[in-house]
Design goal:
Elements: H1 2-9, E1 20-23, E2 26-33, E3 37-44, E4 52-54, E5 58-66, E6 69-73, E7 76-80, E8 85-88, E9 94-97, E10 104-112, E11 121-124
Antiparallel strand pairs: 1-2, 2-3, 3-10, 4-11, 5-8, 5-10, 6-7, 6-9
């Protein structure tokens, strides 16, 4: 309790959000955070997908480190293998899907003026989130 109070006093995000966040599709681990960037390790279960979404304030770079990623970026759908990457500009609809039988793991680098988790506009979601 004392530690949380100290984190809140210092306006640290750890007071509200744990570094490791579980979701229906897998989890993400916030590895690093700066003033205009955030780095996450994202793990997607076999057959699972994140929502079709877009962000108003951030762009994302994705690097596949394990498995195969099916990426939707606007009207384009393509596969990425280990050591391949893509860029998602601000405002573009995108989705990450794991079509394989092994977990998909990517490193995501977010950059922009606002990196909050509430900067998500969902268009389709298999888990009925808004």
């Amino acid at each position: 309790k004392d530690i949380v109070a100290k984190l809140k006093k210092q306006s640290r995000s750890e007071a509200e959000n744990h570094r490791l966040c579980y979701r229906p599709w897998g989890y993400y681990d916030s590895i690093d955070l700066g003033e205009r960037f955030q780095v996450k390790r994202i793990r997607v279960k076999p057959g699972a997908s994140l929502s079709l979404q877009m962000h108003h304030h951030r762009a994302e770079h994705w690097v596949v480190v394990q498995g195969t990623a099916e990426v939707t970026r606007e009207d384009e759908v393509f596969l990425l293998s280990e050591n391949e990457s893509t860029f998602i500009p601000v405002g573009q609809k995108h989705r990450l899907h794991n079509p394989g039988r092994v977990p998909l793991e990517i490193i995501e680098i977010q950059s922009g003026g606002y990196l909050g988790e509430d900067d998500i506009v969902r268009f389709q979601d298999n888990y009925h989130r808004h």
